[in-house]
Amino acid sequence: MRHDTLIDAIGNTPVVRLRVDAPERVEVYAKLELQNPYAMKDRVARRMILEARRTGALAEGAPVVESSSGTMALGIALVGTCLGHPVHIVSDPRIDPVTLTKLTAMGCTVHIVEAMTSQGWQSARLERLADLMRELPGAYWPRQYSNPDNPAAYRSLADELVADLGTVDVLVGSVGSGGSLCGTAAALLDRFPALKVVGVDCVGSVLFGQPDLATRKQSGLGNSLFPDNIDYRLLDEVHWCSDDEAFHATRSLAREQQIFAGNTSGSVYRVLTHLAAHAAPGTRLVGIMPDRGDRYADTVYRHEPTGPIVTEPVRVPFGTTVTRWSYASIPRADRRVLVFLESNTTGTGMLALRTATRLGFAPVLVARDPGRYAGLDATGCTTVTCDTEDDAAVLAAVRTAAAGRTVAGTTTTSDFYLEHTARLADALGVPGHARGTAAACRNKALTRAALGNAGVPQPAYSVAEDTASVPGAVALVGAPCVVKPVDGSGSQDVRWCPDEATAVAHAARVLAVTENVRGQRSAGRVLVEEFVDGPEYSVEMFCVGGEAVCVGVTRRTTTPLPHFVETGHLFPADLPAARRAELAEAARQALKAVGFEHGPAHIEARLTAGGPVVIEINGRLAGGMIPEIVRAATGTDLLEQQVRAATGLPVYLEAQRARHAGLRFLTAQEAGRLVAVTGTAAAERVPGVVAVVVTGAPGRAVRPPMDAYDRLGHVIAVGDTEQEVETALAAAAALLRVETETTDG
Length: 745
What we know:
The chain is built from 22 helices and 30 strands. By secondary structure, it is of the alpha/beta class. The strands form 6 sheets. It has an 8-stranded mixed beta sheet, sandwiched between helices. Helix 3 links the parallel strand 4 (about 85-90) and strand 5 (about 110). It is globular.
């Protein structure tokens, strides 16, 4: 077949039948993606770069920059240089000499980072890539892990399989970025709904609920991050192979089938042959073989195993930590349901839905108004609309959505629905808070009473049911004081009052509100409490088996008085060990006072000369994206642990690294309407910045922040010290502009 360029030679790879020990009429095939000019990722590189040129994201002759130590680098080099683009590949010392030679021979510039960060080599490479994006005007970064053109590139692979084989019953593929298996499976499932999709991962990869092991030696599959291109809903089963097992299987593939391939193909071969041996007559299985073995000649093919090679996998419940060849079933049609009763609106709620899917559950969001949740459609979860104030309606809706499947648990990421969730968990007989505990966390008057009974340090307080009671309350606690609704959230209507008159006026405004932002009936009472001066912290807690574990302490910054809106966070707080221990113990005592024994909690406190003073108990994870900076700093994914706790899976709270992370919110400086937030691209390129997110849509009404709902986005930065993080956040903030226009009236 004639091709005008080498790019035209990508794809149309052969399918070969393997000689395997299997029942009669079981057919086993290998799709030899290793027969592309370099490897399977050639398809992805071609698709991403051609689409970027078509849309204008990549200008003629502009540089292409990517982070890779393997076949994606070769694919980018092939397509980029062939089309006249300078190609810069960021890699690390683990890159094999053969790949490095190929890249430099094609004229690429290869940048080798010198040392890993505490987040590993991938993080170090991304930091260097960010530098290159600043240094190379007009550079294009394909972003293989999140680019939708990655999985889209494999529709052609699916078409080729159908043309060659007609039908496919079982598809087996390795999972790294998620593009090849999920892209191929999605296209095949359109034609063959009964297709069984089996993913192959490695021990020590986080992709399917395993703890991260930086010592794993396999390349081409597995990950320390969660790529957007993995659609967990498509998979029926996942296998994990250890390094020894994968490398042994790779050599077996060469010896038994004369296919000299890499360890990704070897792992696929091991799982493929196992499935074939147990398949029903008439089953047709296909394994995707991604790359050739030349770059592994001195590693995989010379590897000496450290112990006996497992010849049969162990079946485990999904979420079980494994150390050798094991597998778990996660059938698409019968996944256990995890019910989310409403959500917060700050971003972590949508992340929680995706986390549930990743852990093998079928998330169902029950909501009164699903339209309030930005990004909900992208989660792919089932959404049920019903009156969430009606317990009977919620229970009926859950049972209908479950459609006979097991309900593994129920949870929420919103303060407003703690009590609702506790009642639903009780009705379903799944793990959850006692109703009284949820009420004591939700209602600040009940919180104060419980803390007072337990002797936990807290502000002096008084509860007022009408404005006539407020002067007496102020006299009791003293002025200045803080006045807030007993059932508020997100700093809404929390106000510092310098004197009695201000307190009475603000209490009147609060008491006049009959419904909160969720349409729930307000409690009709205000809390008047002593203003405690001192730096503000939050203690991130997690209760497992009745034991309260301190994950860490966050330093918080807020707006100037009279409001208390959070403007930024730093984790972990830079505090002497003794002070951290005091805050942690105060949080434990506070949780004990309200009978809190299950799942995450977020305790707000101020640190005074006399020690910690507990301000609030929040019976859920911190909002404001704090779980994301905890994950960035420690590697502990608190959203994942919340899902695990809600469904009875093991919970892992041990930190995997010791870095610092911080967040700064974007807010308007004046009232009006939002025109735009500019400077985001420049802010993203600041060293240490890992995310710049804008949540405010142009045209919305804005004002200087009076509650959490006035925030318009955020910046997250990571560093080895708190000072590094603060410097990065300040630099990014200096580049960002919240542009507004005044409105009449």
